[in-house]
Amino acid sequence: MIKALLTIDDVSSENTPAIVDYLCEKNIKVIMFMVGQWAENHPDELIFALKHGIIVGNHSYSHPHFSEISFEEAKAEILKNEEVLDRFYEQAGVERKYRPFRFPYGYKGGDNKEILQAFLKENGFD
After folding, report:
1. Which of 58, 53, 44 is nearest to 21 (CA)?
2. CA 83 to CA 46: how far, in whole Å?
3. Are 63 and 84 in contact, with CB atoms under 8 Å apart?
4. Which of 1, 27, 62, 93 is deepest in the core (most CB within 10 A)?
5. What Rg, from alpha-carbon coordinates, does the chain have?
6. Are 102 and 126 in contact (CB under 8 A)?
């Protein structure tokens, strides 16, 4: 049997609860990747997803092109979003078991790709 995992980027928004309800109804497993800045504008929607068993991963705080920012800026984007994610997991009363990360736009960091990959690995990202 072939299995797949659906991923959804750029949450949270006003549509998040409807998407979560549909996915749960159909028993579709998903990882949603959160942009911290957007989730802070839709906290209830993100907490709803967490309380319904959705794994939420890090998609950066402000969704920049990682190939256009410095390593220090990239690291700050990731770590700031980690703080936001931890806060939402705590507010939802859900244990955070996984730390997935996805680069916005699929850009892996341009000239900083290798050191970003090392940073992610050293910091326990999945």
Report:
1. 53
2. 15
3. no
4. 62
5. 14
6. no
